Each structure stands twice: as structure tokens, then as C-alpha cells.
Amino acid sequence: MFLRNHWYVAASDHEIGSKPLSRLILGEPVVIYRAEDGTPVALEDRCPHRRLPLSMGKLVGGDVLQCHYHGLRFDRTGQCVRVPGQDMIPQAARVRSYPVIERYHWLWIWMGDPALADPAKITDYHWLDDPAWGAKTDYLYAQCNWQLICDNLLDLTHLAFVHETTIGNMALVEHAQVRVERTPNGVRVTRWIIDQPAPPAFVKIGGFTGNVDRWQIIDYTPPAFIRLDVGATPTGTGAPQGRRVGGIQMRNLNAITPETETTSHYFWGQAHDFEPHNPDMTERVFQQIKTAFLEDVAVFSAQQKMIDLDPSAPQVDINADAGGIQARRICDRLYKEEQAARAAAQTAAE
Amino acid sequence: MALKFRVELVWQGNDTDSASSIFLTTDGRVILQGRAVSREERTRLALPDEGEMISVDRNLIRAIKEML
Hints:
The complex is a heterodimer. By secondary structure, chain A is of the alpha+beta class. Chain A has six helices and 18 strands. Chain A has helices at residues 146-154, 159-162, 171-174, 200-206, 279-309, 322-349; strands at residues 7-12, 21-25, 28-34, 40-44, 58-60, 64-66, 73-74, 80-82, 97-98, 100-103, 106-110, 134-142, 176-183, 186-196, 212-221, 225-234, 248-260, 263-272. Chain A is globular, with a radius of gyration of 23 Å. Helices cover 24% and strands 24% of the residues of chain B. In chain B, the strands form two sheets. In chain B, strands 1-2-3 form a three-stranded antiparallel sheet. A two-stranded antiparallel sheet of chain B has the order 4-5. The two termini of chain B are 26 Å apart. The chains are: A alpha+beta, B alpha+beta. Chain A binds chain B through residues 157, 173-184, 319-320, 322, 325-326, 329, and chain B through 4-14, 21, 24-26, 66-67. Strand 13 of chain A pairs parallel with strand 1 (6-11) of chain B.
């Protein structure tokens, strides 16, 4: 199941240059490059002539992508503009062109009806390029369905077990009160852990010596954008009442782009507002989280293997799954609406 | 024994529709918020005498259907 009428992160800005990049997104082959004027371009990665990936070709004249096989050339709209050896360009010689926007150091691609591609709908990840925050982004290849990553990020009780040496401890499971708020198109999971020891990573980064009040506020917007507001302050200093002093606060920012039904592009970043201009701190914070995320990626692969062996094996839900379940229900509804709109459009066209 | 882990479900249909919270407890119960139905109301509405009754908002029923 893929939701197409949404913006997805296709690449990090530094990945894109004059050398075409090939990326499979929602099961569609896409080639991405930067034209001579710096504008990112995304086209269908398949020459309509003999279907070689256009990403094996090269840019000519700074703006036109030439197929490696027989030299057909395509402009940024996807129109074939030259067929070597003939003047006539077949009418059908064109490839799909995808709307792309560069924002927050990411390239965003619209995979659905281009008429609906409104840049205002891009999810806010401003912490990634806000001068008040230090931030670093990364990419992970996850061998799992995209919704397994959403489940993981919406239920942080797993931190106590998967990440017990970094960002987790048993307080997350045994002393947390979780609030799951569902709106028509979003889920917010709020968790407070009051007057408990800080996890190892927080001790390293924040230097806590005593108990802390810790928060995790998870914002989900469909299909797969999950932004975490996380942090801790020394206990009793007023964090639950909105007073965050003497501690640390970070944003863990996740944008998952489906590759196929069983693999995903996992774009993420970590931002911090303490010592935001200290690159050593940015790197330290980043590495703590990356260590944890690599633990997650191992879990995802193992999960997907088991699911693939028997997709019909029963699945039992527990209370802590509430946020993930609501997110899946929102996606199910949006998918049905999208399919219905597509069917109606097809009927109208006939 | 003090409750250690509790999940509160909050439903918002749109800007005007919302429901009171639903609580999931560690011992498997679902706790709802409502108003106790008085003896007088029971008599007036010809409701059974047995058991305790609460009146809940219709939005809470929608929340239950959508979130549980």
C-alpha cells in the first residue's frame, strides 16, 4: 500500500549533482539530477525506447539527460528532444517528470497527480536548517515495510529493550503515562517519565547526575513523517508545566520513503538546541542516536523476514501500540480515499 | 499497587468534535469518563434498577469505534 498524493523525501541535497542518481520510490524508478542552474530534476528512470535506466546516462549541455544506450535525449519536463539519426521524434517518446522541491537540506518529490503537488503541504522540518539548532542528517536503508518504522517510532517502550545501552531504560515501560491524541490526519503521542534516572545517552550528553523529568512528544503526519520532541531536565524544575531549564532538548526528525512493499529509504536527522554551534556536540548527539537507529534497522530486517515467511500469522496488540494503530488507520482511510478518487477519475475519462 | 504504565486515548474528530479520554490500564480494563445516571433519571427513563449506569457523550462512542 502506497499513498501517492503526498510529498516524500527522495534524497539529501548533497547526494544530487550533475551525475544522475537512481532511486526506486514507491516502486517507481526515478532518476534525479541537478541541472546547470542548480535546479533539481526528477524523471522516470527508464528510457521509453529500450528501457535502459536513464541514470546510466549523462547530462549534456547542462540540462538534458542522454540515454547511455542509443543517445536519446530528454529535457527536464521529460520530453524527448533528440533522437540520434532522425529528425522525427516519436510522440510517445517522453518520460514522466515529477515535481521536486528542495527544502530543509532534503529533496522532496511528489509521486501522485502533479496538479495536486502543493509545496505548502511539505511537513515542517525547519530544525534541520534553523541557525538556533545544531543538526545533522543521515540516510539508512531499511529492509522492511515503511509502516514497521512508523510503528517503532510511535511506541518508544522498545527503547528499554532494543536501546538499553543508549537511549533506553526500564523507566520508559514501568513509569510512563502515555497520552495518544488522534486528529483526522495526525497522531500525537506524549509520554512523561517523572523523577527517574536518565538513560546512558542523556547522562553522556547532558551530564545529569541525579534523577530527571523526561519527555517524549511524538508528532505523526501521514504517510510517514514522525517528529520527536525529546529531552530532560533535573527533576522538579517544572518541565511538565512547560518550564524547560537546566537540561537538554532535541528533535529527532524522521521521514520514511517507501522503496518497495518490503524496503524503505529512511531519512532522519537529529537537532539540538544546547551548544548549537559546537560541531563536536552535534556529532556526539548524532552518534548516540545513530547507534540506536542501527539497532532498530536490525530489528526491522528480522521482523520483515518473519512477516514474509507467513504474512497471515496473527499479530497481537498491546496498550503501548495505541499510537501506531491510529497511524495505520489514518493511512488505511487515506488510501481508500485515494483509490476511490482514482477510480472516479478513470470512469470520468472513459 | 500504584499504576505504573497507563495509556490515555484522546480523540478529536475535527475543530468542534472531541471526546473525553479513554484509559487503557495495565490490568486490561478500559476506563471511560461519563456521568452517573441518578435514581430519578432511571425512574423517568424506565431504566433497569440493577447495576450502575453512566451516561456518555455520543462522541465518546465514535472515539471508541475509531480508536479501539
